[in-house]
Specification:
The complex is a heterodimer of chains A (about 425) and B (about 625). Chain A has about 425 residues and is α+β, with helices and mostly antiparallel strands. Chain A is about 35% helix and about 40% strand. Chain A contains nine helices and 18 strands. In chain A, the strands form four sheets. In chain A, strands 3, 4, 5, 12, 13, 14, 15, 16, 17 and 18 form a ten-stranded antiparallel sheet that branches. A four-stranded antiparallel sheet of chain A has the order 6-7-10-11, with no helix packed on it. With about 625 residues, chain B is mostly helical. In chain B, a hairpin with a 2-residue loop joins strand 1 and strand 2. Chain B starts with a helix and ends with a helix. The chains are: A alpha+beta (about 425), B mainly alpha (about 625). At the A-B interface, helix 2, helix 3, helix 5, strand 14 and strand 17 of A face helix 21, helix 22 and helix 23 of B.
């Protein structure tokens, strides 16, 4: 009895309709909420979620309880599969509908797989540079380098108050603070009103402060960690490890920012101090450490040959972004040049490289800067599913529609 | 005789309207100044080659929301106010600003703005809405102070008054840009001044060199020259249209200001600059022969290398003159009225007349659509404006197909109704500026514009058609007795068929959009507002179909749900752009937002009406 009821429920059209209605509400609310929470915030809150608690509606908090995107997706898939199995009959009349629904299942499952399996990274280089790794846009790691030995601590583990003991490091890392986003300002010699946060390295010249996390997809969080190293009970001192000192583009920005205020020479000096590597020596071993985006190394490398950014004459409307890149893969004996532009990505070695951002063009070169390009690097093993799913649904609906059309056209004539 | 009339009235009506249209295509004859010919000159503005005529019309649309200029707006239409063409106005702004600055070209509706600028109220020499540059510029200080304040406020947080200030600022900026196109603004005898400048070059260059070397130099000439240079620098900074055509490999299209700044290096002034200067002085002295001769000289200097630009400019000028969408709109209105009347007196002649007129309007609409595509070298939909044109076109085709099979005047009303409404929307979207703007890098792909965008837009069009049919059902059923059981059933069948069609196209279009996104950004689905808007349309249509298949809704439920389709489509088409977030945001327009709210509320009212029990419906109570 219960089984019968469950089957009836899972295969019912009423469930489908209810799920569709909830989906519409969820998508609508999740769209509006983007104005308050940003694209990624809204995705996490509404779509990549099982149960949604509370929502933002044009700056107002609305108390509500809704099934999230994951729950709706899974229920729809279950509903569809059950209905398929239960009511499956192979007739030409139903062929289109069957095909379309199988396509929808594939699309839903494919999207879930993409959510779970795909990785999005960035590859950033100036003309002439070669990269054999991609960097995460959101995740960071604290790195200790001793010669060729590299120890990486993911930023996720950097919780204030924690003590980290790693076998590859002859010292303890104590996390004083970790800021997901931070500001910095130069500690000008005349204007030091307070002592530095910690007494070593880059923190002597710069004040690092916690900053609110940014939500828009166009802005970037710049994390900083305040750490203390110690051997046993004896502290070696405190440092600030920050992405501010690791990212060449950020350093260039800081330099540019101080240019007006203090002149070219001093601005250059400030940039050099910010970029200066920080080291610690323990038991005769010298460790350089920094906080930088998480890296994925590739078995091949890309070199940026030329970055081009053209605009329409007499305007600043971008006409074309284009990176000429050299693919170097010694194992395969490959060494060729390719062009990556908007709408023309490079698929290579299981990754896809898209043109993402660019600093190039006339204005840029006139300012005397070396052109750079940022590629978005995506690894998505299920990238083919939407193509197949779409073809199936499109074909299925077309068959079904033609079926109706023929009926629709022939009926009035019969009258 | 009656039969004869019945047979020939529809084609005759169509023929008359066609004559009316062809009469409107003819450019007005050139009286003395060849302004129409002047309007055909190719220039570059907003990154593309276009005729001066387009700049003139677009500028007038932006300044006063019309394509012509009424010099005496305080006169009623029967008092014959003097109306001049866009090109005549532009020629005067560019070359005779002493006169043009006195013409009432800036529209101001906001009472607070009008009082801030101390503008005259409606009276003998003012209509209380249109004001001249001179009238506005006299109170520049107060305006600038307000503008500085307003510019710091985010566009979405501005009040109506603050919006009006920002808009006026934009309008003044555009006007100032145009004033600096061919000569420094305010030059009264530009040909003579240009000659003087050219003569001055050798001495001034010598003086400048001496000054740099620290030797004695001719201070008077040096200062005179510096005055010129700073005026030219100002021209260049205003970024006006690029009117000087390219010369081989030496340079691309140039602004007059830039060319004049280069002039001292070569020692001479560009020939085209000189011709424009001659036209300018002729216009100021009201000498049409000299003006036309200088224009002719300039045209004869355009070489074969500029042939494509000339051809494009001429073609676009003809297109502007034709105004296909405006004219089609007028015919749609007429056709729609005829079809509605045919419901009541059941006149087959009226219905057929309406259908013939719709064919004419659709023909003109199609010509306009294809002409635009050829001019741009693009698929039909490239921006919000062209989406309105295309939705209207698609809906009209669907409506005619429905009419072909049902012959009950309903398809005709749908075709003409949606045709008219979408062209009105397009007309208002055109007020934002150039409708054939260049495509940003990521959109620069004809393949995806032709597949994804067209499929999604057909999805919009068909969802609107279903919704419009539903409105007809409710209007006729609730307020009249004309909705008999057969008509009701046939309407519901039409709605169902169209919803199926809409589901197919909106689904395919949405997924193609995902595939495009996967090709250019590496993610198939990113929950961007516009993507979500399209998804909601797909889900809504799927929901309607499943409700119908499950027997949860029947005829009237289907009708009510189809009206919901209007809301979700309007939301996806305009609403999401107003959120000001995401990859598809085109900017926020206050007026459009009001209309969207009005539309949604009206549709909700119809849903409420449609849900009332049958005893309140005139048609249903008439049936029993």
């Amino acid at each position: 009895m219960l089984i019968k009821k469950t089957v009836a429920l899972l295969t019912s059209l009423k469930l489908t309709v209810t799920l569709l209605a909830f989906s519409i509400v969820l998508v609508f609310i999740g769209t509006i909420a983007q104005a308050d929470e940003g694209l990624y915030g809204a995705q996490a809150h509404y779509f990549k979620q099982w149960i949604v608690v509370g929502a933002n509606f044009f700056g107002h908090k609305v108390p509500l309880l809704l099934p999230g995107g994951y729950l709706l997706g899974v229920l729809l898939v279950v509903n569809l599969i059950c209905a398929h199995i239960y009511r499956f009959e192979f007739t030409t009349k139903k062929l289109g509908i069957q095909l379309a629904h199988a396509g929808v299942i594939l699309l839903l499952v494919g999207q879930l797989a993409t959510d779970l399996l795909s990785r999005e990274m960035l590859m950033q280089f100036t003309e002439g540079e070669t990269r054999n790794y991609s960097e995460s846009a959101t995740d960071y790691e604290l790195i200790f380098i001793n010669g060729t030995e590299v120890t990486a601590i993911p930023a996720k583990l950097l919780k204030p108050g924690d003590e980290l003991n790693l076998s590859s490091l002859p010292f303890t890392v104590r996390v004083k603070n970790y800021w997901k986003n931070s500001d910095l300002s130069f500690r000008a010699p005349m204007m030091r009103s307070a002592p530095p946060v910690v007494s070593n390295g880059v923190a002597l010249d710069f004040d690092f402060t916690n900053a609110p996390e940014v939500k828009s997809s166009e802005q970037k969080n710049v994390p900083s960690a305040v750490i203390e190293l110690a051997v046993g009970k004896t502290p070696l001192g405190g440092w600030v490890a920050s992405d501010w000192s690791g990212d060449a583009a950020l350093i260039a920005n800081v330099q540019q920012g101080y240019l007006q205020q203090v002149g070219a020479e001093m601005a250059h000096n400030i940039a050099t101090r910010l970029a200066a590597p920080q080291t610690v020596e323990v038991a005769g071993k010298k460790f350089t450490f920094l906080l930088r985006p998480l890296r994925i190394y590739h078995s091949f490398s890309l070199a940026l040959v030329k970055a081009t950014h053209t605009v329409y004459p007499g305007t600043d409307i971008p006409k074309d972004f284009r990176s000429r890149v050299q693919v170097q893969n010694p194992q395969a004996g490959e060494n060729r040049e390719v062009e990556i532009s908007m709408n023309h990505p490079l698929r290579y070695g299981g990754y896809t490289f898209y043109q993402y951002q660019m600093g190039a063009g006339e204005m840029f070169e006139r300012a005397g800067q070396t052109p750079f390009s940022v590629l978005s690097v995506v690894r998505n093993p299920s990238w083919l599913t939407p193509y197949v799913g779409c073809a199936m649904v499109g074909l299925g609906l077309a068959i079904q529609f033609l079926f109706h059309l023929v009926k629709f056209v022939s009926k009035p004539k019969a009258k | 005789m009656k039969k004869f009339l019945q047979k020939w009235t529809p084609p005759l009506l169509m023929f008359l309207m066609a004559l009316w249209f062809f009469g409107k295509i003819q450019p007005p004859p050139e009286k003395d100044f060849a302004f129409t010919e002047f309007g055909r000159l190719p220039v570059v503005f907003n990154g593309r080659v276009k005729p001066l005529d387009s700049i003139a019309r677009n500028a007038l649309l932006q300044l006063r929301e019309k394509q012509t200029l009424n010099l005496e707006p305080w006169k009623a239409w029967n008092e014959k106010p003097k109306i001049i063409s866009a090109t005549e106005w532009l020629a005067n702004v560019m070359m005779n600003s002493a006169v043009a600055d006195g013409w009432p070209v800036f529209r101001a509706d906001n009472p607070d703005l009008i009082s801030l600028l101390k503008l005259p109220e409606k009276g003998a020499q003012s209509d209380g809405k249109h004001y001249s540059w001179n009238q506005i510029a006299t109170n520049n200080e107060a305006f600038e102070r307000e503008n500085v304040r307003v510019q710091k406020i985010a566009a979405t947080d501005r009040t109506a008054y603050e919006n009006a200030v920002a808009k006026m600022h934009e309008r003044l900026g555009l006007y100032a840009q145009l004033k600096n196109t061919v000569q420094p603004e305010g030059a009264t005898d530009w040909a003579a001044e240009l000659n003087a400048f050219e003569k001055l070059i050798p001495d001034a260059v010598a003086a400048a060199k001496a000054q740099q070397a620290g030797e004695k130099f001719d201070e008077q000439k040096f200062n005179q020259f510096a005055g010129y240079i700073s005026a030219f620098q100002y021209m260049s900074r205003m970024e006006p249209p690029l009117v000087l055509p390219p010369a081989g490999a030496t340079h691309d299209w140039r602004r007059v200001g830039d060319a004049l700044l280069e002039a001292p290096r070569g020692g001479t002034v560009d020939d085209f600059t000189r011709d424009y200067a001659k036209m300018s002085s002729a216009l100021v002295t009201d000498n049409s022969d000299d003006f036309n001769a200088a224009l002719h000289d300039l045209q004869s200097k355009l070489t074969t290398a500029q042939q494509p630009a000339i051809a494009k400019a001429r073609a676009e000028q003809f297109f502007n003159q034709m105004e296909p969408f405006y004219n089609a709109m007028v015919i749609y209105v007429l056709a729609g009225l005829l079809a509605i009347f045919s419901w009541f007196n059941l006149s087959e002649t009226l219905r057929r007349s309406s259908v013939w007129l719709i064919w004419l309007a659709l023909g003109i609409h199609t010509v306009g659509l294809v002409y635009r595509m050829v001019l741009e070298g693009r698929p039909p939909v490239t921006n919000l404006y062209s989406s309105a044109i295309f939705i209207g076109w698609g809906a009209c085709v669907l409506g005619l197909i429905l009419e072909k099979f049902h012959k009950n005047g309903i398809g005709a009303v749908v075709a003409s109704g949606i045709g008219f409404i979408t062209l009105i929307i397009a007309h208002h979207l055109a007020l934002e500026g150039d409708t054939m703007e260049m495509m940003r890098a990521v959109l620069d792909t004809n393949f995806w514009l032709a597949t994804h965008v067209v499929a999604v837009t057909v999805g919009y069009a068909s969802t609107f058609v279903a919704g419009f049919l539903a409105l007809i059902y409710i209007l006729r059923g609730f307020f009249t007795r004309t909705l008999d059981a057969a008509t009701g059933k046939s309407l519901a069948r039409m709605i169902y068929g169209i919803v199926c069609f809409a589901t197919l196209f909106s689904f395919v279009g949405t997924v193609l959009g995902g595939i495009w996104a996967d090709q250019s950004w590496g993610r198939f689905w990113g929950w961007d507002p516009k993507e979500n808007g399209a998804l909601i349309i797909v889900l809504w249509n799927a929901l309607i179909l499943h409700l119908r298949w499950g027997g949860i809704i029947r005829e009237r439920g289907l009708v009510v749900c189809a009206i919901g389709g209007n809301i979700v489509t309007a939301w996806s088409w305009f609403g999401v752009n107003m959120l000001g977030i995401g990859l598809h945001s085109y900017g926020f327009t206050d007026a459009a937002f009001k209309w969207l709210v009005f539309f949604v509320v009206s549709q909700l009212a119809f849903i409420a009406l449609g849900s009332l029990p049958g005893k309140f419906w005139k048609s249903f109570s008439a049936r029993t």
